[in-house]
Amino acid sequence: xxxxxxxxxxxxxxxxxxxxxxxxxxxxxxxxxxxxxxxxxxxxxxxxxxxxxxxxxxxxxxxxxxxxxxxxxxxxxxxxxxxxxxxxxxxxxxxxxxxxxxxxxxxxxxxxxxxxxxxxxxxxxxxxxxxxxxxxxxxxxxxxxxxxxxxxxxxxxxxxxxxxxxxxxxxxxxxxxxxxxxxxxxxxxxxxxxxxxxxxxxxxxxxxxxxxxxxxxxxxxxxxxxxxxxxxxxxxxxxxxxxxxxxxxxxxxxxxxxxxxxxxxxxxxxxxxxxxxxxxxxxxxxxxxxxxxxxxxxxxxxxxxxx
Length: 307
Ligand code: ADP
Fold this sequence. Notes:
- This protein is an alpha/beta fold.
- The chain has a domain at 15-110 and 222-306: P-loop containing nucleotide triphosphate hydrolases (Rossmann fold), CATH 3.40.50.
- 39% of the residues lie in helices and 21% in strands.
- The strands form two sheets. A six-stranded mixed sheet has the order 6-7-8-3-9-10, with helices on both faces. Strands 2-1-4-5 form a four-stranded antiparallel sheet.
- It is globular.
- The chain binds adenosine-5'-diphosphate.
- The site of adenosine-5'-diphosphate has 12 residues, from strand 1, strand 2 and helix 2.
């Protein structure tokens, strides 16, 4: 039996991927801003007792000041590895990463990180969790407290400043984690599936919250997710990685105008973007599975399916 490779939709098939004049003007301004992050030909190989894994290959892209860039891709496409390299928690095997023109060689105050797992210190109150990083970085106690209270006010947590993490809901914990990452006033906020553990309603509220924060302060965001709706709703541009090893398939400029709202989830631009992303990811997973499947096994699978 002949297996046909699925056809990818093109821009001609999806006319709503084309940008309106308003969206084009938005991207012209965005791309005229300074480049904050430059990822140049980055590759990553892991050598372990179980064998070698090539997680990332030839990754190159830039983010501009105040850009919101999402990274999507199938599971195992190296999304977490990429953000960990940018954070300085992992070292690239080849290529380099520049932040404001300087090579990234380890973690630094210029990047704040939020993970999916809750990472607050359970023995410190909400306020002290936020103060912790400020004091470590040399800020006096009173100033750190004033800063922490100001940030917690921004995310509506005034009433919980003296609570402990176990007294908070998942959404509240992530709001504190975001504020804690932002309090040091980093250049970039790096987020690795930060809302992945939250229920759908809380997740939607957190996305809206994050957009408000992003619009209120001058920050560039690199946001990892496997949720395509989340990526389209939040991002200026979406970097799509292929499965194993992660390579750049496409960098999509999201044609959905800002300000965004949930009503746009059914707009033609939103749906066209989603179709394009789904096609890319489907294609990438399909290519990987066909590559890995021994011919005999493939034949058996097909004849089972045919019967
Ligand atoms: P994603 O976030 O897209 O799911 P990851 O970045 O977690 O992908 O992983 C990419 C690949 O690298 C996977 O095959 C994973 O098993 C491998 N990998 C990630 N971290 C390590 C590690 N510390 N040691 C060995 N292999 C790893």
